[in-house]
Write a structure and sequence with these properties.
By secondary structure, the chain is mainly alpha-helical. It is built from 14 helices and two strands; from the N terminus they run H-H-H-H-E-E-H-H-H-H-H-H-H-H-H-H. Helix 2 packs parallel to helix 14, helix 5 packs antiparallel against helix 13 and helix 11 packs across helix 12. The longest helix is centred in the last third of the chain and has 34 residues.
């Protein structure tokens, strides 16, 4: 089957952007009006900090020489790790940031360094693995241990924020990249078991915050989410008609935006959202399998994995009682300038790879 990959990618991305702003307009208008006196406050902010900055990053990275990115991939990761450490320095903390050290404020501009890691870490791992021969790839001392040591500082700092869900997201994406790089199952399986044990121990020793997330001790947000999803039924109650966004559903425009989408557009609307993400996932693996070099394939696989897994987890934790709510946004739909811009930057490299494949 032959089709225009570049055109399909562009259409999917544009549709996701339009759908995202359409959903955000409704999901955020009540909170925007009550908190900022402007029902379009979050839409405007997303447009400037997310779409404008993200589009600039997209076009730069869609044209840049990939060898340049590979050459400085470790430096980018190092800088990102330093930024992760800076969130614990009081002078760089935004005011009122008492529950978690995830934001960095500098010269009036605030962002989340952990979101940037979705780009820099995937870039570094793709470059690192692509340089290894098959024999070296399956060697603990030449690949597995060095890669773990490179990633460890950033992972530890994210754990301290705390943001365990992002760590799990990274590990799934990197696991997919390792599998695609033909790492032996004799290596992958023990690593997988070890990682699961480490995460379980980290959660158990991580204090009440992490335990309550896993055990769903406070499930008010989930109850309100499910109420909205059930109310939406098959076709939804209509654009702008959600009741849950009237301060019943916490974080209706970020962590819980899927519930508002389900309430207003119903099962049919959420099916369209899922179809968009799965189409992007399919396209990503198609491009990776037809790419001319290992680095490009691994970068696309890592990127498309974290986007798809993050979207699916956001949807599942809003829909099922057994899934702990973690605060992962719905890519290119939830409010969040840093997340939006970084996703667009990753899409820029994706487009670059399509052009060169």
């Amino acid at each position: 089957m032959k089709f225009n990959v570049k055109k399909l990618f562009s259409i999917l991305l544009v549709i996701l952007i339009i759908v995202g702003f359409w959903c955000l307009t409704s999901a955020s208008n009540i909170v925007g009006r009550d908190k900022h006196g402007d029902p379009f406050f979050f839409v405007k902010d997303q447009f400037v900090k997310g779409l404008v900055l993200g589009t600039i990053a997209f076009f730069i990275l869609s044209k840049i020489n990939l060898n340049f990115l590979r050459k400085f991939s470790f430096l980018f990761l190092l800088i990102n790790t330093i930024l992760l450490g800076m969130v614990f320095i009081p002078r760089f903390m935004p005011k009122g940031n008492a529950t978690a050290n995830r934001w960095l404020q500098f010269m009036g501009f605030s962002f989340q360094p952990a979101e940037l890691l979705k780009f820099t870490l995937i870039l570094f791992v793709a470059d690192f693995l692509s340089k290894k021969s098959v024999n070296d790839l399956n060697n603990w001392t030449k690949t597995i241990i060095p890669l773990a040591l490179y990633m460890a500082p950033a992972i530890v700092l994210i754990y301290k924020q705390p943001a365990t869900s992002i760590i799990v997201l990274f590990l799934i994406a990197i696991g997919a990249m390792c599998f695609a790089s033909k790492l032996s199952m004799k290596i992958l399986l023990p690593i997988g078991v070890l990682v699961i044990l480490i995460i379980a121990i980290a959660i158990l020793l991580g204090g009440n915050y992490r335990k309550e997330r896993i055990t769903n001790k406070d499930d008010y947000q989930r109850r309100q989410s499910i109420i909205g999803i059930v109310r939406g039924g098959v076709i939804g109650v209509g654009f702008g008609q959600s009741r849950q966004k009237y301060n019943y559903l916490p974080q209706s425009y970020t962590d819980s935006i899927y519930a508002v989408i389900a309430e207003e557009f119903g099962f049919l609307g959420t099916t369209v959202i899922l179809a968009l993400y799965f189409s992007l996932w399919f396209l990503g693996f198609y491009v990776a399998s037809h790419s001319g070099d290992t680095f490009s394939s691994l970068f696309v696989i890592g990127t498309i994995t974290w986007i798809t897994v993050q979207a699916l987890y956001h949807i599942m934790c809003m829909s099922f009682n057994q899934m702990p709510i973690t605060g992962l946004p719905l890519p290119l739909i939830s409010y969040g300038g840093t997340s939006y811009a970084i996703t667009m930057a990753s899409m820029g490299v994706f487009y670059n790879i399509i052009n060169k494949s």
